[in-house]
Design a protein that fits this description.
mainly alpha, globular
């Protein structure tokens, strides 16, 4: 099940870069994001009105935390990705910059969440970074002269936004049902993107049918598939493992771009894909070893430590 969820997550998340490129050909970023989330938020609110059981027990504080998480992980992240592609940064390069996220999250997991990151996991993280760099370095060099240098900082800000949302969710002590959190996140994004589109005068959607095809693509695959699976795998496997899968986004996006848009797919892309797969294997093995060490350490503790009197 974990393998199937991981494969589905990689495909669905990568589809977001492809959908962003499809949408950028027919509309501006605020327009596309507004009409992506408005109907989605309306449908989720209607579904929430029918099934109210999952919303019971949700406090105002928990709802506020989910609003902030949604603003960071959806609004901030997606705005940066779409805007970078609109500025001319290729989907592969954007995926590469997002691929730095596992290293940032892995470095912060210890001090912020007290999650152990083994040497094998660090090896896999660095291996994955080299893989995605191999895939996109040629592409970045090819388009670098045509794109402003600061455009490459835009997806980097989005990556930091997603990392912040991930740790904010990880530090939460009250679990929130995935459907509830998804609804809050999408409503938050709908409000923010609608305000942005209205503010810049880009709220009117184009009549081109390709715009609505791209919108439907982005609603079904990246939102329900990629975004939903991200939080599901995060809760099942932890931050390090779910972020390691991000290493596969750049090579998979490159393959997808080659099939849909005729983008070049050479030896470097194939090599990067192989290295990315190897990184996932290394990290998952390291994660299994770290869990084994944790279980053994708990088993070796004196019995007094587990009693209320033994805890100081």
């Amino acid at each position: 099940m974990n393998a199937l969820l991981s494969a589905a997550f990689v495909l669905c998340w990568s589809s977001g870069f492809i959908g962003a490129k499809l949408g950028a050909e027919s509309a501006a970023t605020p327009t596309l994001l507004m009409w992506r989330f408005l109907p989605l938020a309306a449908a989720l609110v209607a579904a929430a009105a029918v099934s109210r059981a999952q919303w019971r027990g949700l406090t105002l504080r928990d709802a506020g935390r989910q609003v902030v998480i949604g603003a960071l992980s959806q609004s901030g992240y997606l705005l940066s990705v779409y805007y970078a592609i609109e500025l001319g940064v290729s989907s592969g390069t954007t995926a590469l910059i997002d691929g730095v996220q596992p290293l940032v999250a892995g470095a912060l997991a210890g001090p912020l969440l007290r999650q152990y990151v083994s040497r094998g996991q660090w090896l896999g993280l660095w291996l994955g970074l080299s893989g995605v760099a191999t895939v996109t370095v040629a592409d970045a060099a090819a388009v670098g002269a045509e794109v402003a240098w600061w455009a490459y900082l835009v997806p980097f800000l989005g990556m930091l936004s997603l990392v912040a949302a991930t740790f904010l969710e990880g530090r939460s002590r009250t679990p929130v049902a995935p459907r509830v959190s998804l609804t809050i996140h999408c409503v938050t994004s709908a409000v923010l993107f609608s305000a942005l589109a209205l503010g810049v005068g880009a709220a009117t959607p184009p009549a081109d049918s390709s715009f609505w095809v791209a919108t439907a693509w982005l609603v079904v695959l990246p939102t329900f598939g990629g975004y939903g699976l991200y939080w599901l795998i995060l809760r099942r496997s932890g931050i390090t493992e779910v972020n390691t899968l991000m290493f596969l986004m750049a090579p998979v996006t490159a393959v997808w771009g080659a099939l849909m848009f005729g983008e070049p797919f050479g030896v470097a892309t194939a090599l990067g894909l192989a290295v990315g797969l190897a990184a996932v294997v290394v990290v998952r093995r390291g994660s299994g070893a770290s869990r084994t060490r944790t279980v053994r350490s708990h088993a070796d503790r004196p019995a007094v430590e587990s009693s209320p009197a033994g805890r100081r």
